[in-house]
């Protein structure tokens, strides 16, 4: 009987892709936090034509965009709410300071880019927050962009006005 078990183990080890023991399979390594020498995490967020570079570090919840306070740069309350969403979903409101630089696009696209960057940076700073941010869809880049204008059309799809006479 013991000889049969030894030969079975030898067969399983000889066949590629077959694991003889569940304990022999290595578990996936847990994600490590990614922080620089100053204790910050960096990520790039994108939305439409806007690109945001975002640094987060532990702090009191101060958000600076292009050297201005969030309330000054994004004056509309809806845009400020968009920037606060990742912190609310992750449950870390007023625990991180954010410094962001954003270029391109309009204010709405820039707010979406900063939100995407904050979400990615939070996940890099604290990998345990990844599940909540991923479930909310904040780690996925919104791929919708403006459609290009086609020749023979007035806009991307709008035709010139038809005239019968």
The secondary structure category is: alpha+beta
Question: Could you give the distance between the termini?
Answer: 97 Å
Radius of gyration: 25 Å
Secondary-structure element series: HEEEEHHEHH
Strand content bin: 15-25%
Gross morphology: flat
Spatial strand arrangement across the major sheet: 1-2-5-3-4
Count, helices:
5
How many strand units? Answer: 5
Helical amount among residues, as a percent range?
25-40%
Quaternary assembly = single chain
Spans of at least 5 consecutive residues whose pLDDT stays below 50 are none
pLDDT averaged residue by residue = 89
Main beta sheet: 5 strands, mixed
Report on the architecture of this protein:
With 165 residues, the chain is an alpha+beta fold. It contains five helices and five strands, in the order αββββααβαα. It has helices at residues 2-14, 70-73, 77-90, 107-125, 130-136, and strands spanning 41-47, 50-58, 63-65, 68-69, 96-103. Strands 1-2-5-3-4 form a five-stranded mixed beta sheet. α3 (77-90) runs parallel beside α4. The model has no long low-confidence stretch (mean pLDDT 89).
């Amino acid at each position: 009987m013991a000889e049969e078990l030894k030969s079975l183990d030898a067969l399983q080890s000889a066949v590629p892709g077959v694991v003889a023991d569940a304990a022999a399979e290595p578990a996936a390594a847990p994600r490590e936090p990614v922080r620089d020498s100053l204790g910050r995490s960096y990520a790039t967020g994108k939305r439409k034509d806007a690109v945001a570079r975002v640094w987060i570090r532990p702090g009191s919840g101060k958000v600076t965009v292009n050297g201005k306070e969030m309330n000054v740069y994004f004056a509309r309350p809806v845009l400020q709410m968009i920037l606060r969403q990742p912190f609310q979903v992750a449950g870390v409101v007023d625990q991180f300071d954010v410094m962001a630089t954003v270029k391109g696009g309009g204010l709405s696209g820039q707010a979406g880019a900063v939100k995407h960057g904050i979400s990615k940076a939070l996940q890099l700073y604290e990998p345990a927050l990844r599940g909540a941010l991923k479930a909310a869809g904040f780690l996925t880049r919104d791929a919708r962009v403006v459609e290009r204008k086609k020749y023979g059309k007035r806009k991307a799809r709008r035709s010139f006005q038809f005239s019968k006479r």
